[in-house]
Amino acid sequence: MNAKDARYVNNEAASRSGEQIDFSFGKNWLAYVSGLEERHIAEAQRSFVESTGLTSLVGYSFLDAGCGSGLSSLVASLLNAEKVVSFDIDPSSVACTEQLRSRFARDAGRREVQTHSLLDRDLPLKITPADVVCCWGVAHHTGSMWEAIDHVAGCVAENGMLLLAIYNRTNIPAHG
Known about the structure:
This protein is of the alpha/beta class. The protein has helices spanning 3-17, 25-34, 38-52, 71-78, 91-104, 123-126, 145-153, and strands spanning 61-65, 83-88, 111-115, 130-136, 156-165. It has one domain (3-165): 3-Layer(aba) Sandwich (Rossmann fold), CATH 3.40.50.150. The longest helix is centred in the first third of the chain and has 15 residues, at 3-17.
C-alpha cells in the first residue's frame, strides 16, 4: 500500500465511523519498530504470559484491536495462535504490523492485517469473533471510549477473553 492509498484508507475508515484522526500514533510506532530487538519481543511475550496465564495459544484465535506497533500480534504468533487478525484505523500502524509480521513471524499465512475503526458500530459484524481479544492502550484515544469498548467486546468469542488496558493520567494531587 503506498502512502496515498494509506491516507485514503485512513480517511475512508474514519469517515465511515464518524471518527476524526488528529494524531498518527502509527508514525511513532514506525520509529519504535525500526529499533525493535529480540529482547523487546521476549519481554512482551513474558508480560503477555504473566498477565494471562496462557503459555501457548495453540487452538486459540487472537484479535489485536487497534494493533499499533503490531507487537501483541507478533507475540500471539510466537505463542502459536491458530489465527491472528490485527486491525487499526491508522495506516502507519497497519504498516508497522505488516513490517513486524514480515521480519519476525514464521506463520505469515495465519495472520491478517486489516483497516477498521474501534468506533465502527458494525465492527462485530465485520470481524470473526476471537478467543483472545487484545485492546491495549487504544480505546481511550478514540474520544468515545465506552462505545469503542462495547464494539471490541462484541468481537470476543463465547467463553473468550478480553485483554483491555486503559490509561488514566491526572494532575490531581493524591490526598493522604
